[in-house]
Amino acid sequence: MLASSGAARRAEHPGARRRGDVVFASLARAAGITIVVALAGVALFLTLEGVPAVTAPAERIGADNIVVYVWPLLFGTLLAATIAIAVAAPLSIALALVISHYAPRRVARPIGYLVDLLAAVPSVVYGLWGIEFFGPRLAPAYEWLGEHLSWLPFFAGPATSTGRTILTAALVLAIMALPIITAICREIFAQTPTLHQEAALALGATRWEMIRMTVFPYGRSGIISAIMLGLGRALGETMAVAMVLSATGVVTFNLISSVNPSTIAANIALSFPEASGLKVNVLIFSGLVLFLITFVVNFLGRWIAARGRVEGGR
Q1: Domain-wise residue ranges, the chain
Q2: What angle do CA 275, 280, 283 make, to 5 degrees?
Q3: Are the C-beta atoms of residues 163 and 142 closer than 8 Å to each other?
Q4: Positive/negative CA dihedral, 232, 235, 241, 242
Q5: Which GO MF terms does the UniProt record name (predicted)?
Q6: Is 56-313 a domain of CATH 3.60.15.10?
Q7: Which tens digit of pLDDT belongs to each residue from 267-302?
Q8: Structure pTM?
């Protein structure tokens, strides 16, 4: 009786909103504004503190100018993140498909739990594992690549005996990004309409054909968003790269040598404790560059995902 009277009142006043809806909308709006303000504050701080580095003398920068200083770091950041995503993205999508569509439930659930636990491992632990276990065991593989594929610029060598290379750091980043991409893709694949999948199977499609025709088109925008989140993790990772990478601050595509480019985040982490004066401004300016790169990458990811949703709606 009370429910029907309440429904009748809402029907008589369609513009009226329940108190809970108003509170939730206000909280959501406040959260959005807070995020925008915080982002603007970070950008303003980095800009104001980084501008003095543009006119800083060469002896305080450690290079001829700020561009010469930042470019090798930016190159190393993009190179490590690109390799990491190139490795992590296909593995993550395949693992998500195994969990959502191929493995039995009694097997898929423990695998999903293990993947989720990987995301909770601290960066320092990944760094210790990379420098003490993963890197030394990759050294023989690097020597083989240097002996047989030295005609490629990526494996020109000479191969390092410690395994502390940009390739090792990128593979560690790939392992760190894998649980993020996998978890998101798994949830997206599980939300594919069952009727679409059953219709494809009923028409004679194999399981892979069903996935290719129904699951991937439905989750395209979500897959792109997941990859971009993983890329953001790879771009901003600090401690694991700083611990694994033996950096010399050069620009090179040689992935197995002891001469490696550094990354912006790792360079800030290693150099900031001893920095003072204009050197701090130089490091903050490099942080501003990383902030802009991350912002552009996430903006492109959102744009591609939104475009995919619009095309899928058509």
Answers
A1: 56-313
A2: 105
A3: yes
A4: negative
A5: phosphate transmembrane transporter activity
A6: no
A7: 888 887 777 778 888 888 888 888 888 888 888 877
A8: 0.83
